[in-house]
Design a protein that fits this description.
The protein is built from five helices and eleven strands. By secondary structure, the protein is of the alpha+beta class.
């Protein structure tokens, strides 16, 4: 069967059209497809915390500050690309040497208008509880050891941590500490802009 010149031209452009269609898909669906089964399972288990009051009922409390790294920072070997970490809700009962995908020590919220929107979670182990080895979860070694991040925790609280952006795509990857897509209110009463420290 012989195709007309117009149909031949269309067929030759089909791969380009299909690629453009794939690129036009929402990034969240692409990120969701790339998320491991273990991460998807953790995300499903933590969905209830989209309501911050559910988090409070389960023992999380807000540290109030919206942590921002507008220019990025470096803490020894740890890089914080420009972006934010949001508002941390900490559950002290979950702190210990063993990490559970369904019990993060910290939930991360982004202030959006007058609401707090769940964007990620953080697994956190103090150096004293780590037993001399680097903790791991989701196939990742936690970053650290590092000093505590004042003003939301004392600098003397040396620890390991891993931020996991389960609900908001992070342009630099699901395990990067800061997320350029997360915003704190610039100059807001509870926004803490972190600078470079060593």
């Amino acid at each position: 069967m012989r195709l007309s010149p117009r149909k031949t031209w269309l067929w030759s452009r089909l791969p380009i059209v299909m690629a453009a269609a794939l690129l036009a898909l929402p990034s969240s669906s692409n990120a969701q497809a790339a998320m491991s089964a273990e991460l998807q399972s953790a995300r499903a288990a933590l969905e209830k915390y989209k309501d911050p009051f559910a988090a409070i009922k389960d023992g999380y409390f807000s540290t109030l500050a919206c942590v921002d790294f507008p220019k990025g920072a470096k803490d020894g070997p740890i890089e914080y690309p420009p972006g934010a970490m949001g508002v941390h809700f900490l559950n002290p009962a979950n702190i210990g040497p063993n990490l559970d995908p369904t019990k993060p020590q910290v939930l991360i919220y982004e202030p959006v208008g007058d609401k707090l929107v769940l964007v990620g979670a953080e697994w956190f182990v103090p150096v004293e509880a780590a037993g001399g080895k680097v903790p791991t979860i989701f196939g990742q070694a936690l970053a650290g050891p590092m000093d505590g991040h004042e003003p939301i925790m004392p600098a003397s609280l040396r620890h390991y941590d891993l931020h996991v952006w389960l609900w908001k795509d992070n342009p630099r990857g699901v395990f990067t500490s800061t997320n350029a897509a997360v915003k704190c209110t610039p100059g807001g009463a509870y926004t803490v802009a972190m600078g470079e420290h060593h």
